[in-house]
Amino acid sequence: MIYLLILGCCIFLFTLYMAYKAHHDTIDYLEITDRNLPEGFSGFRLFFISDIHRRQINENTLQLIKGKIDIVIIGGDLTEKGVPIKRTQNYIKKLKQWNKPIYFIWGNNDYEAFPDTIYHLLIQEGVIILANSSKDIVANNGDILSLLGLDCCKYQEAHLDQALQGAKGTYNLLLTHAPSAFYDLNVDEQQVIHTVLAGHTHGGQIRILGFGLYEPGGFQVYQGTNILISEGYGYTTLPFRLGTKSECHVITFKRNE
């Protein structure tokens, strides 16, 4: 009997630990140094968050971020089926604290919810939707950086050629919910991309002895392209994490002379 009691306590404590990991925020401060970066964007700083799902954004976490933020990027799965639209609206209002442009790309769970309702909410809140489209950001010296947003893989097709139409930047920052959308590009297409921001995988969300359904998230340079795959802010199915982080990102770009 005593062994069953001990086992039950261990399972309870382990469950509490996984729930804690799912709700304990990590702010990942990343500096990307790139010789291709136009001079006008050295010091450009953005906030990136993906895979919020049904989590509440912790306002205290956002308030810990000091210094300027130039833009905010939501990397898909802003919400999911069953999440009240008012809660989703509250996410966006919290991300407005910097009074800077907010950009959004679709995730598979956004499409599984009520995409028409989400679309109208985003437009109402002034969020810029990038779905196989681009937005040029012009620096004070006239340099141009292009944000290229791909549509979501599962319910819509990702088309880089459409996203590139009209993009005038000498530096291309690709936003894709699923990392595979970049890796599926041919070599010539990959080479026009300087930096990729992605999410979707949650880093596996629950990893046992280092093994999970997906590779861990993180930053790497792949054949000259900077790639950040976030492990995501929220969770799906169960409110647990193990061996992964609930994270958001502050990314600073520096020009490497």
Question: Could you walk me through the main structural features you see in this protein, from its secondary elements to its overall organization?
Answer:
Helices cover 26% and strands 25% of the residues. It has 257 residues and is an alpha/beta fold. The strands form 2 sheets. Strands 1-12-2-3-4-5 form a 6-stranded mixed beta sheet. The model has no long low-confidence stretch (mean pLDDT 94).
What is the CA-based Rg, rounded? 19 Å
- Ranges where pLDDT stays below 50 over 5 or more residues in a row are none
Q: Strand tally, please?
A: 12
Please tell me the overall pLDDT. Answer: 94
What is the general shape? globular
Give me the number of helical elements: 8
Rounded to the nearest angstrom, the distance between the terminal CA atoms is 68 Å
Strand content: 25-35%
| Major β-sheet annotation | 6 strands, mixed
Order of helices and strands: HEEHEHEHHEEEHEHHEEEE
Helix content: 25-40%
Major beta sheet, strand line-up: 1-12-2-3-4-5
The computed structural class is: alpha/beta
Short description:
The protein has 257 residues and is an alpha/beta fold.
Main attributes of the structure:
12 strands, six-stranded mixed sheet, 8 helices, alpha/beta, 257 residues
